[in-house]
Design brief:
The chain is an alpha+beta fold and 670 residues long. Helices cover 46% and strands 18% of the residues. A nine-stranded mixed beta sheet has the order 10-22-21-20-11-18-19-24-23, with helices on both faces. A six-stranded antiparallel beta sheet has the order 2-1-3-9-4-7, with no helix packed on it. Strands 12-17-16-15-14-13 form a six-stranded antiparallel beta sheet. Strand 14 (404-409) and strand 15 form a beta hairpin. Helix 9 packs antiparallel against helix 22. The longest helix has 35 residues, at 568-602.
Length: 670
Amino acid sequence: MSKECCGPDTAATTDAPTQVVPLPPWWTDRGLALPVTSGLFLVLGYLSSWILGADSLSAALHVAALTSGALTFVPDTLRHLTRGHLGVGLLMTIAATGAVILGHIAEAAALAFLFSIAEALEDRAMDRAKHGLSALLSLVPETTRVLRDGHVHDVAVADVHIGDVLVVGAGDRLATDGLVESGRSSLDTSAITGESIPVDRGPGDDVLAGSVLGSGSLRVRATADGTDNSLTTIVRLVHEAHLQKGRRARLADTIARPLVPTVLVVSAVVAIIGSLFGDPDVWIERALIVLVAASPCALAIAVPVTVISAIGSASRLGVIIKSGEAFERFGTIRQVALDKTGTLTANEPRVSRVETADGFSRDQVLAWAASLEQSSTHPLARAVVSAVDQPPTAANVEEHAGQGVIGIVEGNHVRLGNVRWINPGPLAEVASAMAADGMSIVVVERDERVVGLIGVRDDLRASAAPAVNDLRRDGVSVVMLTGDNRATATALARQADIDQVFAEQMPADKADVVRRMSEHAPTAMIGDGINDAPALASATVGIAMGATGSAAAVESADIAFTGHDLRQIPAAIAHARRGRAIMTGNIALALAIIVVLFPLALFGVLGLAGVVLVHEVAEVLVIANGARAARLRPQQATAPGAQPVPSTCADGCCQPTTANGRTALNLVEP
């Protein structure tokens, strides 16, 4: 760890960890060897003086203690000094040297021991916080079985590429992300998503790297390389977060960085002025005590150890936070805006109903729609494509975010999209009935004539309503944003117990709603698609569903949620709030130590030994307090897998209003 004033040295850690190094037990940790040796010599020195009266032996033991402790920070201090960096280690080096010159070898040894042991404990706390992240890499096996040329081969995971077919047996871990081609099994994804209940996966389902198969076996076609998948993405994102500092970290840096030269100047002034009007020996010693008392050791580590601990443990909830600043903002959230499709819903859409205009068949409408949807990234497109075995080839396909898709199919100009973009015309009443039944409507138009409607249903996630209730219990208000029509939005909102909905929203409209919400109170936006990217970027905190989902959404977001159980979101917000409180407490404690110790040192109330003891004990307390941020409190949500209980909405309780020219719906509890 760097001995500079502003926390850990990240210069040497710009690359994400590539292997897991086990955290050794404290009694075998080499980083503690010299500080412990220094402490033993220090104690033996005091005992030899108090019990045996052997002052020479005591002095020799104290010199050994001083040397052992100083070796942990003096070399680094001198190296940083040659580069023009002034750090806390420089203050300790000057104080120890001055104490030796004044003949206070025991005090110098005590300073070296306490500072070295505090630094070693700090390093270990940081290593422990980072170890949970690095341990994620152990979830990927070193080798896996791949089907090539009709034979199964054991290959290194690094040699797995997109398109390879993995043969995964019971108890095996998946080497990379993929789609199940054959077989069916339950997968334990708890280490990646934070969800304790195994999920069933069969042909066509996606699976994540690091998941563990239960019974049975699967053949999985890789959709990501072995070295670039959802798990490595998680590790990279969290590692990058460790290298970025939040507002409180920058605040601590802003205070700590100028303190080092300021302390040097103040100590020099105390020594010079005191020597002019009093005993030079007394005031030089007092200047050294002031130098130790005002050292910002605890302040420098107050935030980093907390941020790293908290972000690392948040990944166990399936919440991957990209930066310390995002973590701090996450802890301020008072409003949450939820996208509907793929966020509140299970993202397993299916075609429920097809209505056609006169002269057209169901198969024709589905085939034309599927031909365009093959290139679409919208979640509903998957349902349409899967409903057709061999759709015709489309040309000149263009996707309009939040509206639909256009292209040429079999020589005809085909357009499909939502009811705002394409008027259902003669099928308007049917479209309204389908929407009231909770379906998302896709209107299909050929050569400027409406030929049919496709009703796609994406059922609500079982965790949606409990998650909304958990957020409300914690004082967080919830709204739903959707591009769907008002009737469909109403049906889903009732099931999810959401009492405010903004329906028929274009991407720009979603961003505008979120921006206005953020101006009123800190707001998190949760979404998964390209059309959510503007809103994610506009929020106080943007949360993308899935680290390997829409690239635009993940890029625009501050946080990636890799799980499916939305109840992890309120748990993560509570975790972030607790982390912010710990940060604030650490900064206050670190500043209080300086404020209290400085006058006591200046007026001679405390000697060098007393100041050193209080100062280093305070640093250990700050480290221990920051490490508490790694703990996750038990979730208060209902048990995983519980079904939501739909709320009721009596006739007349749903009162439509308008906001910014778009439909807003307030569902008032009767």
